[in-house]
Amino acid sequence: MNLSRLATSLVTVTAVLVLVLPTSRSVAQESLRPSDPIAAIDGDPILLGELNYLLASKLKVKDLSDVNLDVQRASSALLVRQHMALQTLRQQGGTDLQTLLDRDWEEFLVALRRKGLNLDEYCKQFQSDERSVRQSHDWDSAWRRYLKSMMTDANLKRYYELHHENYSSARWNVSHLFIAVDKQSRDSQAIAEQRIQDITSQLQETSDAAEALKTKFAELAVRESEGATADKGGGIGWVSQPGDLPTAVMKAIRETETGSVTPPVLSPLGYHLVLVHEKKVERVAYEDVSDLTPLRRDAATALFDALVARHGKAKVVWYVKQLQPPGN
Fold this sequence. Notes:
The structure is a single chain. The chain is α+β, with helices and mostly antiparallel strands. The protein has two domains: about 190 residues, no CATH class; about 110 residues, Chitinase A, domain 3. Helices cover about 50% and strands about 15% of the residues. The protein has eleven helices and seven strands. The strands form two sheets. A four-stranded antiparallel beta sheet has the order 4-3-6-5. A hairpin with a 2-residue loop joins strand 1 and strand 2. Helix 4 crosses helix 6 and helix 4 crosses helix 11. The longest helix is centred in the first third of the chain and has 46 residues. The N terminus is likely disordered.
């Protein structure tokens, strides 16, 4: 198990997911110094240098002025969570952990000198400062050690037993209602969205009665659906994996209880509603799981979230309002 790669993935996933969003750029790098705080958690500052270092060293951004604002916000929010998680690890590890972090830092400095660099030169490469680089290094080191101690085969098996349905072979008997969106028409999506919302409202009127919901869904599918099985009341039988239906639709099916209808799902083709009639799960023994990568990723995320949750009541103050995530 490559714990270092897993840790890096967890650190950067939030920011990577929003790289495709076309948004305005931040001016924080132009008006502030790396040592200036962008936020604080119970008075403990998060510095601009930490954000710059995350973007440049983890996401391999060469020109920080080109990073759009949503990426910087997501990265800033991740830094807040990392600070909270590291605080929990420091409380748990005490002086023993600090001794290890100090040793790791000294080894990092030695490695820099072997490359012919000093710390000031290294910091300038990433538009950062010593305190920010040390904070990032401490987090990476503490998190790596924590993962190594926690991600044992026994713990991974225990996590699997608690969440086995997410990794077992499952299939669902469903009915499908589909409203197409014409990408060539400017108003098509708005019209389709209104239609799917109207259909959803009608279905909600019968959501408490299983048979009535099934009958109503079939009637609406015949009358409104543009899918291939509309004349059959939307019934398409058993589905089990992306490819049977679009990925986003399959995800919604997984999250919907038997006898219920998914929320409206927008795919590249149009809007979907799915009535889940039945679910069958073929449980796979932990020893027979062929690819443990998703399980390891999810277990690491759960560990990270648990560390953050210890400081869920911490007061976060944003000094650079541009970087404050929506809802914070």
